[in-house]
Design brief:
The chain is α+β, with helices and mostly antiparallel strands. The chain is built from 23 helices and 50 strands. The protein is 20% helix and 21% strand. β26 and β27 form a beta hairpin. About 7% of the residues have low confidence. GO terms for molecular function: flavin adenine dinucleotide binding; oxidoreductase activity, acting on CH-OH group of donors.
Amino acid sequence: MAQFNPDYIIIGGGISGSVVASRLHERDQSLSILLIEAGPDASNHPNVPGAMTAQLLLHSELDWDYKTTPQRHLNDRECYAGAGKALGGGSVINACGWIRGEKSDYDSWAEVVGDSKWNYQGFLPYFRKVEHYHVSSEEHGSQGPNYTQSVTSSGRQYPLRDPLKNAWIAAGVRHIADANSGSPQGIGELVENRHDSIRQVASTIYSLKGIDVLLNTLVKRVVIEDNETGEKVATGVELANGDIIKAKKEVILAAGAYRTPQVLLLSGVGAKKDLKGISQVVDLAQVGENFHDHMSVSQWWKLRHPENNLAIGSPGFINPKYFTGLPMDWIITQTVPRKGLKDALERDSGKNEDSNLLVASDRAHTESFMVYVARSPENPTIPMNGTHVTTSVVGLLPTSRGSIKLASTDPNDAPLIDPNYYATEADRYVLRTGLRKMAEALNTEAGRDFVEHEVVSEGLVPLTPNSSDEEIDAHVRLHGSTVYHAAGTAIRVIATGSSTTCFRVCFHSYLCSWQAQQQRRILKISPVKNLLGSHFGVIGLDAAFDYVVIGGGTAGLTLATRIAESGKFSVAVIEAGGFPETDNGNLTSIPGNAAYYVGSAPGERNPLIDWETYTEPQPGLGNRTILYTQGKTLGGGSSRNYLLYHRSTIGAYQKWADHVGDQSYTFENLLPYFKRSINFTSPNDDIRLANSTPKYNESAFCPCGGPVKVTYPNWVNALASCGSLLGYQYVQYSLDRDTQTRSSSETSFGRQALTQTTNLNIYKSTLAKKILFDANNTATGVLVNSGGVEYTISANREVILSAGAFRSPQLLLVSGIGNPETLAEHNISLIANRPGVGQNMWDHCLFGVSRAVDVLTHSRLSTPAFAQEQALLYLTNRTGMSTSTGADILGWEKTPHSPTQQLQPKHPRRPRNFPSDWPEIEFLFLDGWSGLQRDFLTGAPRDGKLYGSASAALAAPFSRGNVTISSNDTADNPVVSPNYLVDPRDQEVAIAAFKRILEGVRQSALTVYHTAATNAMGNASDPNAVVDSEAKVIGVKNLRVVDASAFPFFTSWASSEYCL
């Protein structure tokens, strides 16, 4: 094998590979060509030829049988992603539809690439050349290898042919004689790639005689080496068994939209971050990106007169000709209203879309059809007895983009396939329009003659022409699936200059062109239809944006989205973590799981979502060192907190405004912004306990607010119904009322940005190392590290630091802003002398006791049977304990005789007087064990009792902590010392609050994770101030701090509400 050196090696014996091999040999029979196919020769397989046996090929040995990653816009379903694993590829297992497409699609293609040969007229000679069309027409060929048949030409006369046609005509759709003439809009007859009902397999109709074919052989990688001039040249392939075969001329990669990017990545061609440790040979960041696919949505309909033998399964549906092709008659191709599509595109991009090719003309956007059989794996209650039929609506010009990534370096492992279906407003608009049109046609008088009603899965409602977006979206999320038309995953692999690779990439037969330059091949992949930018930054490549936001947490994603939605600026978000849904699953989304990995010393931790920062020994807590839980994930603390949403007092905001000399920080002036971010929904009183109706002020919210969801949980703690509630309230949650799932900055602002903008890029799993400055102390960008690769993300306008109360001061210090003595200790050059960086740390200190109670509490969840019961309640109807974190009653008080007025201040510079409405104590009634606060899940006694906890937090602490650095590397955790209870006034308030001895408090105290003010806001004349009232870092330019570290002092509320 190793001694066989053909002229050409073609990887993949599918449609494109077979065509290219055959055409090369046809052009020059002296060429030696090796075609390598991972699957077998299926030409004699009994299920391949016939129309009705094609379904048996799916999930068979002739199918790669892939699944997508969970699709977050489709209920996190893993969708089937079939692909032909046989000589002939997709032509072995596909549905044999022969659909040329619309003239304007090809004309747009030519316009995008600036080359007229890609327009419809440029393609037409080749369309004719490959066709042996079933009717004579100047538009079609008659001598090509691909035979076609229509429903009529194959003699199929289905009973519903005319009734279905009449229903669509009644809905305003015109009939067309030839849907394959470049103008397919209307209702036209199905055409299939069959000859006398037999499937036309590419490897059969394109002769492979004279070509060496290697079957059942998997290629691991393309071998790429430097030639004598230093250019990268593909010299051969390495097989999965380690054998290497050299090519004299070229390697041609034609393994399809799934396998082609996988082979490229395994060959070291791609972004370094995607190579799984494989040595990078060519840096082509778009390998595996730009993945797009047609998505369809199926529906099932009960027939009005099934006794007329209308569908498969009926006793009389037995005409042999019915089974010589797909059991269907028509393809209905339609456009959508341009204004509605333009509006949707503008919601996606944030800019004017008048020139977008998708709205430049009335292009075909949907394809619909009815199959005379009922097949519903999603709804097995639908019988296959001739009483039901299936319809599908397909979106033809998707704007959603996904990716193909390596799961491992083993070519036997399936790649990670993420189509990112239904991710854009444009795609949603198109499918909603198509589904409404389907409902309109079948609800015409002609349609009602043969269709009784739609049969829907549990939880859905039958669709009508007037169905809401939400009703249609529910159908799509449950029943959306691929049409197996994946494309685009090597679409922007353009080799130029010295990085030329001497091989070609082919897929979908027509997607490639190549040109000669200096007697070598330059790869040029032509774009398919419209292309959109990715929402994720290219790891390892320097890039520039208008704004660079460090930290994708509560404040960071909020601010980045607000900037991006203007459509005027490009924004990059640098986040050290990833998506919490991926890294923490349901433990993030479901409120009842909020206690996981929380406590001063939890037994289990998840480093994927937590920085694992430990404090210094705390004198006020008996010299204990405690774990300070933080959100190292998109959404930051809002993805990890207890979901409690409450604002501070009017006096607190007024004090802030007075302190920084800027009245825009008063409650009155901030309220419109609070309203703008929050979408409040009233509690579901039909589910909550009868005596637990909360009181709330609707004027504090706005119906137009959003995207953060705020409501009350469906579960009410029994403890909350005991005794007087004077001075207390049911607390609101950052919670989606309908789904009872967490609403964080990631699920709200982040997802809004990902679906409605194109100018925001997220660099996830990327650590900010240092803020970069020019000679004028102007922030110019950020040095970052992704998987060991350092590169620079530059800011044309500003760098915005939003890394939280610990990481923001750390980044300022390692970048040269802070106390000169601290910087000198770590050999850091001074940029700005601001000794207040990392000082003035405020935090709420939590303490309390737990006692056995005689009412039902979350403690019962330690019983497996009860936990299973509650999980079932949550999954089926979003009720039960899992909808609550265990805390739903909060109270605020001042102590009757405030120790703060009696004790001499230890630090006279600190404010002596809090506003009159500023409470000193926050009381929390927890529906479970808190005990010594070590581990909220496993710390409870194993005695079978039910527990409740009475806890308190210092709402007006006087103890001040600090944050500093242990090195000049942000990969090392900062040094954190909150200094809880070191001020005697805090000790007195704690004792007064809970009436227990000081030692008891010391043993149970813990943070509420509300750290703030470590980069305190103030006037430039104050040496302890770090930022001014506009959050700009004093002493440098183009750098702001936008997170809780910029608070001038702490207030009596949780910090996330202000950040949102």
